[in-house]
Amino acid sequence: MTQTRPESLGIVRLEAIHYYVRDLARSRRFYTEKLDFAETGRSSADLEARGRQRSAVFEAGQARVIVSEPAGEGGRAARWLRRHPDGVGSLVFEVEDIDKTFALIEARRGTPIDEVQTLPDGRGGKFRTFSITTPFGSTTFRFVERSGYTGLYPGIDALPAPNAGGNALGFEGFDHVTSNFETMEPALLWMEHVCGFERYWNIEFHTNDVRIDDKNGSGLRSTVMWDPKSEVKFANNEPYRPFFRASQINLFYEDQHGDGVQHAALTVKDILSTVRAMRERQVSFMPTPGSYYDVLPARLEKLGVGQIDEDLSVLRDLQILVDGSESHRYLLQIFLRDSAGLYDEKAAGPFFYEIIQRKGDKGFGGGNFRALFESIERQHKSEGRL
Length: 386
Hints:
Layout: E1 11-20, H1 24-34, E2 38-43, H2 45-51, E3 53-60, E4 63-70, H3 76-83, E5 87-95, H4 98-107, E6 117-120, E7 126-132, E8 140-147, E9 156-163, E10 171-180, H5 185-193, E11 198-206, E12 219-227, E13 232-239, H6 248-256, E14 260-268, H7 271-280, H8 290-294, H9 296-303, H10 312-318, E15 321-326, E16 329-335, H11 339-343, E17 352-359, H12 366-382
Parallel strand pairs: 1-4, 5-8, 10-13, 14-17
Antiparallel strand pairs: 1-5, 2-3, 2-9, 3-4, 6-7, 7-8, 10-14, 11-12, 12-13, 15-16, 16-17
């Protein structure tokens, strides 16, 4: 019996992530100087007074990041930061028909925070939006529809000319968002039954070949959910026993003070040039040991990938990871250090960015999960947490 695919919410794309921080000036330096994003908008004085937060919008390609800091007590940024370190407080989705999106979510027992709001721009355009709660900790989903609306967002003034940033690093947009949960299945069911997403990919592993006398280690179960129409993808992780409490997913939960968004992946066309330029800008990445590259040719052969276009010595020098699933279909990826590590400040939070170039492979680097986890595990050991 063929299962009927649930009706789509009409998502067009993941438009933006909304990030709450304690230091907007520091974030401005990171996005414009380190990542070469352009600052394209800032909150108006009226919005700052009403919303009690200051905001800036940063863009590179189709990737948009809204960053807000508190401007007094009572605003969303201040409420978030009372409970959490800096982190992603909302994911913004562009939709085709917001009334249809709202009706589907409400019929599926989702939880809207507000009604659909219609905000005219005074020039005949309308910005329509509403938000919902999610199982992603305190992170909300915001849906937006623009009917002739050409601005960024109501209350955000576009800068006359972008501040810095020419996207010299070649970012294209968001490939996926990854979130961590203490228990994942309720979130997967919510994405399936409320959002209409489908299961796309999964993996589970442990960083050690677990033995009865092992003292620690880190493992996970991961399931990717996607919206087939827009191809928006969410990778979702939970701890994998044994050593549940020592798992990096559980340590994220402790650092985040709950479930939440762990990282967002940015796509590029030429990861070698991007990473080389980022290293010249003193961007810090999670380290990869030389042993990873010693066994890489044999691992790619086993995966059926065979030869790749890139020089192995260049990949080793830049510490870029490779994974794939079939002949000459592979992906290249690398992970920045988390914000707490970048700024040497725990309150900066455990969120980080991934850089990814897809060369035919649509998976999620299952073989690289272990390399990433082992790298994070080494960091946690150096901090005395394992």
